[in-house]
Amino acid sequence: MTEPIAPDAPFLRTLAPLLRGLERRLRAWSEARLVNPVTAVARAEIEGLADDLHRKAGALDVEQPILVVMLMGGTGVGKSTLMNALAGAVIAPASFARPTTRDPVVYFHQSIDPEKLDPALRLCRLVRHDRESLRHKIIVDTPDVDSNDLANREKLVALLPVADVVLYVGSQEKYHDQLGWELFKGQRQRRAFAFVLNKWDRCVQVGPSGVRPDDDLLKDLKAEGFNNPKLFRTTAQPWVDAAAAGKAKPDDLPAGEQFAELKDWIELGLTRLEIEAVKARGVGQLLDQLARAVQAIRPPDLTAEATTVREAWTAALDEESRVAADVLVAALDPRSVEIEGHFNVRGQDRFRGLMAGYLKLLTLRYSWRAFRPTLASPASPADADLDLAGFAAGCARLAGERVLDRRATALVNRLLVEANAREFPLAILNDRTAAAAARPGWDDRYTRAVVESLTEVERELTNPTGAKSLPRAIVRLIANYLPEAVLVGSIFVLLWRFFVEELTPSLFHVVMPFFVTLATLVLLHVLVSFVFPLRWPAIREQFRRVLNGRLRTEYERTFLPIPNELAELILAERKTVDLLSEEVAQAVEWLAARESAAHVGELYGR
Amino acid sequence: MNDPKTNRQTLAQLVADYDWLEAHCRKQPELARHAGHLRLAAALARNIVGGSLEARPDAPLHIAVVGGAGSGKSTVANFLVGSNAAEANPQAGYTRHPIAFTFAPAASWPSYLGFLGPLRKLTESRPSNLDEDVYQVRPVKAATPDDPLADDVVWDCPDMTTWASTGYVSRLIEVAALADVIVYVASDERYNDEVPTQFLQLLVKAGKAVIVVLTKMREADAPALTEHFRKEVLAKIHDDGTIPPIPVVAIPNLPQAERDDPAKTGAKWRVQLVNQLLVLCPTAKDARARTLGNAVRYLETSSDSLLEVARKDLIQLEGWKAAVSQGQRTFEERYVREYLVGEPFRRFDQSRRQLMEQLAPTGPAEYVGKGFAYLRLPFSLAWDFVAGMGRRTDMPNLPEGTVLANAWTGWMEALQAECLRRADSGGLWKESVHAFESGLKQQGLDRFAAFARQFEQTEGDELEQAGRKLTESLAANPSMLGLLRYGKLAVDIAAVAVVVWWTWVPSWYHVLLLPVAAAASHLFAELVIRWRVELVRVAARRRRESRLREQVAAPLARWLDEVPATGGSSVERLQQVLRRVPENLKALAAAVSPAKTV
Fold it and tell me: Which residues in chain B have Cβ-Cβ distances shorter than 8 Å to A176?
């Protein structure tokens, strides 16, 4: 007790809002949809801690805090007898039938409103008393930890979070039974522990070998870090009998019996200062545990990994787009006639007059092809763009069915394996990546890529820039005007000879201008097909390159952002957790100053 | 069958398998409850079945005193022995290794290999809190020479309830397995505790003869407590709620004097206990036969729980196999769709041409045939042009090798991704993740390369043979070939003659009509041959597909199926154990059966 704190300083009460704030943060975390996977165990721990914070905040938010002392131990060790002895009357049933206590008994002062009790306690058997010395203490008798009735253990585990001080009751037989000991080890970081070795009379007849049970227990406790535990050696039964007989003290107690000390400690030793210190320590332990739990759920920083994964994925996607482009071009190969036809039909637009008519006549044969059932195109041949989209869709569907659909599944697997090799957890990536690959409409995307690539290639070919554009302009000019000029000229020559030279024209003469025009058209056509190379084999390679680029962009747009996006989301989650961690640390610091205020150290161990 | 050496080996293997299964269970928290059963099974096999194989004499019978810490085992042992031989003291869990009290001279102590398994016999007397895998034998003097238990051994055993007992409960199980009679001690505090009750249940299930001793109650409470114990505890030991015929003896909290001299002052309690023992074991022979029979029965019926132990692993193995066969389906499908569907098998076009050439007449008629060929030329050209406009070439394939390699990589990566997805559930999946990281992929590539090479090597021959068979089948049948050749020629001549006769007085349209007439039979023959070749092509495709399955997909799938169960993995061992345990049990049961029936 270094620096006494004023008894009316309600510092515990000021702790309540802090704890509530922490609880809210925890709840918000556990309700949020998290990208970084959290194990069910960790999530349950956080939720349990939120419950504990809620409970603690409620318990602290009162005028004077109330200490809950809980008796815990195996069946038959005499918890109920001890309770009766403490109460000085039979308030808890005790008998040889095991397990005896099935419903916990709560022993509390009449000034406490039962409605204000913790919900877990409200369901128990409530026994009120009017003893001033126990005004701010609640004593709880619990069911056993070790009988065949497993429901009892569940009840006890449900009650334990309410306890501030656990009175670990053992008997000569059960003082270090495994089930109770495990429970003690599980709880020792969270609450204060005092120990009772009941049925002390059975322990004192030491034989030629072995150690006395209390020494044995002290040794076990020392191994657990309790160097100076509060241990009371009691025989509760004679005290109950004495109380029933109206005597203050039983007559023949074994040497070293300490029930009176236990009673004194509970009634007088646990003053307000002690109670507040226990409460504060309890909060401190909870916060320590919280700090550990929060550290455990801190998501990793995956930014660096995301970058390396991105690089690895770029390579994989590049390869994939190359194969996809190959496959799509191969799917287009059988359709070269359609493509050429399409280009030629579009090519008519460049020309006017006779040349355009001539070309239209020639490309009529493509139109009837478009009607054929093998071309799964609903498009009308009149609308060239629709036709192109239609047959591109057909090709994409064929390629998808034959190759690309299965490759998409394989691609996802490859990406996941690559990411895993670069230490990016697969559990995080799996759903997003699979969703990206499974998103419907890859057929449409392939179709669009094919159409756009064809259009682009066509545009490049027909609207060249630089040196190539001049001969083309000349050719176009010639093709647009020469046939008409030839026709008009030759007719003029014919008329000239008819009228001026008075030649009587034969059929040959009359047909001659048309033949000459036709020959011009044919020659020009040859010229045009040299200057405007719209043969499939000629543009195939260029088309493949363009398509490859488009597909790569499409793949990269779909997959590449995923690792970084996820890494950023996780980083944000990490920041949230860090913030939480910081707040817990602040609360711990705030508490630490007050913790050494009272002598409660021995209730905790190391 | 009854060769002692073989039997010994079988037994050793059986015990080793049980031990391995036990260790396997301990590694998985959800299986830990089976570990005790397996330990008991191993101990039963070692001590009871092994004892029978080694012709261990029926006497002495072994009586094991078991119970929770501090419940009074040593006190009860003293009552059995009839003197204050066991160290009784208030420290709970003082006794840390089994101690045998024997009236007989030490020479008759069983000494065959495997007796009490891992426990070593202490040569000198040590305190009973020595915490090592040992047992000790303490000779005691019988209270009277004709003591009814003079031929028996009484074992004072460690407890199973303190936190330290996890370290020594195996010693308790070892002795409990050896025992012909179990004396289960429960105090008024302990009698409804979970852990001791489970132990009692295990022993009852294993067919041990059990006597329950209730201790420490007030003498007045004894009858009521006994009744209560029967109703509350014994009734729950059997699943069907029947109370097993287990005698219950009560020894209340005794004064020090009675405890110190069990043979005289405390004789009342001793007699009661010894009587129950004598009722259970009228003769040593019967008692031992019962012990053996029940042990063998328990071992045989416990195979179900073996499967229970292995279930998770087997489910995982099933999952792995399902993933492998899913991968195989995808692999084959990819090969068919990406390659086989579009593969034209050009070799057959050559066969088709050869077949048409075979139909051309030979000898002097060759010129006639050629004449007809020229005659039909205009029609043929026109026909080819029209047909060519309508024909659609198929989408060309990626090369076969590439398709196969891609499909295989896809298969492996699908498996690897599946392992990574399921790695959290541990076991096989986790082991496989490590396998993938440590070179499984490269192994797979090597294996695939070998299979694929073999597959591709036979492929050319196969096509060549199929193509040649097509042409040779006709060539091998000269009369048929002749009939077809000259029949076709005759039809040509007849067709031209009919046309000329029908439309006599030659006109310009004969130029059109005659080529048509001359081409009719040729066209028909071409159609038939095309159809025939197409059939062969479809068959070749199908054969290629099934050959891929046989030569590549199936061997790879078999290899992958075995991957988790090789290289000393736990699944491999588990499979072995599951196979061997029932077999070995059956053999051993047969070996000890004469002893059982006599």
Answer: 69, 92-93, 162-164
Please say if the pLDDT value at position A379 is more than 50.
no
Q: How far is B308 from chain A (nearest CA, A)?
A: 24
CB-CB contact of B429 with A432 (8 Å): no
B142 or B193, higher pLDDT:
B193
CB A584 within 8 A of CB A591: no
* Closest chain B residue by Cα to residue A39: B424
Mutating which of B187, B188, B189 best tests the A interface, going by the most A Cβ atoms within 10 A?
B189
Residue pair A599/A30 in contact by the 8 Å Cβ criterion: no
> How far apart are alpha carbons A540 and A548 in whole angstroms?
12
Q: CB–CB of B410 and A75 under 8 A?
A: no
The verdict on a CB contact (< 8 Å) between B190 and A427 is: no
**Residue ranges per structural domain of chain A:** 1-63+272-297+584-606, 66-257, 303-559
Residues of B with Cβ-Cβ distance to A399 under 8 angstroms: 395
How many helices, marked H, and strands, marked E, lie in chain B? 21, 8
pLDDT band at B508 (very low <50, low <70, confident <90, very high): confident
In chain A, residues with a C-beta closer than 8 Å to the C-beta of B406 are 323, 407, 410
At residue A170, the 3 state secondary structure works out as strand
User: For residue B101, which phi and psi values (nearest 5 degrees)?
Assistant: -110, 120
Q: Which residue has the tokens 């899913």?
A: B326
Q: pLDDT-based confidence at A194, cuts 50/70/90? A: very high
| DSSP class per residue in B557-583 | HHHHHHGGGSTT-HHHHHHHHHHHHHH
| Fold of the domain spanning B56-301 | Rossmann fold (3.40.50)
**For residue B456, what are its two tokens?**
């591709």
pTM of the predicted structure, to 2 decimals: 0.76
Q: State the ipTM, two decimals.
A: 0.76
Q: Which range has the top average pLDDT, A419-423, A548-552, B512-516?
A: A548-552
CA angle B578, B581, B584 (to 5 degrees): 145
B581 with B44: CB under 8 angstroms?
A: no
Nearest to A480 by CA among A492, A469, A472, A491: A472
Which backbone phi and psi does B332 adopt, to 5 degrees? -65, -40
What average pLDDT does this structure show over B364-368? 82
Least confident of A478-487, B146-155, B160-169, B411-420: B146-155
Instruction: Report the alpha-carbon distance of residue B541 to residue B352 in Å, rounded.
Output: 17
Report the distance separating Cα B373 and Cα B488, nearest Å.
12
**B595 has a pLDDT exceeding 60:** no
Q: How far is B217 from chain A (nearest CA, A)?
A: 8
Instruction: Identify from A146, A150, A177, A368 which residue to disrupt to test chain B contact, counting B C-beta atoms within 10 A and taking the largest count.
Output: A177
Indicate the residue of A176, A210, A420 with minimum beta-carbon distance to B420: A420
- Residue in A448, A425, A481 with CA at minimum distance from that of residue A38: A425
> How far lies A433's CA from each of A408, A443, A606, B406, in Å?
11, 18, 48, 20
Residue B122 C-alpha, separation from nearest chain A C-alpha, in angstroms = 19
Residue of chain B with shortest Cα separation from A184: B163
Confirm if B149 and B80 have CB atoms less than 8 A apart: yes
Q: Give B474 to chain A, closest Cα distance, Å.
A: 35
Closest among A74, A75, A55 to A65, alpha carbons compared: A55
A38 in B contact zone (CB under 8 Å) = no
Mean pLDDT of chain B: 86
Q: Would you say domain A66-257 falls under CATH 3.40.50.300?
A: yes
- Beta-carbon separation of A334 and B395 below 8 A: yes
Which band of pLDDT confidence, cut at 50, 70 and 90, is reported for residue A453?
A: confident
